Amino acid sequence: MNNTDPRWYTDEHRIFRDSIQKFFQKELTPNLPSWRKQGFVDQEFWRTAGAAGMLSTGIPEQYGGVGADLGFEAIIAQEQMAVGDNCWAWSIHSICSHYIMAFGNEQQKARWLPKLADGSYIPALCMSEPIAGSDLQALKTYAKEDSDGFKLNGAKTFISNGQTANFLIVAAKMSNSKRSTNLSLFVVETDKADGFERGKKLEKIGLPGQDTSELFFNDVFVPKENILGQMGQGFRHLMEQLPWERMIIALGAVGYSELMMRETVEYVKNRHAFKKRLMDFQNTRFKLAECQTKLEVTRAFVHQCLEQLLEGSLSNASASMAKWWAAQVQCEIADECLQLHGGYGYIMEYPIAHAYADARIQQIYGGSREIMKELIARSMDA
After folding, report:
1. CATH fold of 124-232
2. Are 98 and 244 in contact (CB under 8 A)?
3. Does the active-site annotation cover 245?
4. Catalytic member of 245, 258, 332, 349
5. Mean pLDDT, contiguous 10-residue spans, the chain (382 residues)
């Protein structure tokens, strides 16, 4: 298998990747079975990750971080999936941190970023609603002006970290208008939020250790100093951060595909049928060759897009291509690799079973594949 590092890698990136792999082996992988069983990641793990520098790579030094380039976070995104972690929603932490860094004022950065860096704040990004997913202009959650701030009312769903988050970035409207300039972002610190309620933890096909939940806001007071970015510019702010969110998903797809290929190659080398190794059957070899080719081509494109992102030249269309294509390839590899495992592929004791169940959501969250294709087509029709 190809072990060539992407062109944007430096010696510092390689050293960091090695340390991340060791951290995952010691602190994360042994906890996966218990997290899957209980349905959420222990809050103490967030502090462990913070102490290890896992949460602060992109946060500037003056706010408790390291101030490293985005490539370090990209390494975390890919390596996390490469060990089969379907529990810890690190990606949400990265996305929310970038919202604060991009749109927060100095007071907000000083208040919130150190707590995100050390793991005392577990974040959630609250966008999706029961009747509004990809269509943000259809959101119903609204903010009503109060004496010194606003009161939030509404419901959110499909919220990662929903049961454990204590730091929420909430998208809400200012009126019933469907104009994109009607949306704003509000930060809710749950320990100060009367009227905030957590709904049920949603049972999913995959990602069993990730606490995806419903959240409710009943006259939740948000002070004016907790408005994130410009009032009425929430839609624009969200759009500006979507390329990184989609790249996280694409990188994770590459990492998880690498895991599936490793596990399957090892399995077919050791499993026998009709007095032959499965690896010796032509069908097995051809299927693996097809999957490996898809993985290599996808990895090359995703890292090309990441290189453009690091240079500040990645287009929304290219980010959309990377997201939907990498997710599609992940699902195709999951299907073929499970098939090569035979009946054992359907048993949750085997990593391929978890990988198969986890893969499907990749084509839905962060923008469905249909939305990605529409965005790509719009760029061609401009």
Report:
1. Butyryl-CoA Dehydrogenase, subunit A; domain 2 (2.40.110)
2. yes
3. yes
4. 245
5. 78 95 96 95 96 95 95 96 93 97 97 98 95 79 91 96 97 71 92 94 94 96 96 92 95 97 97 96 98 98 96 95 98 98 96 96 93 95 79
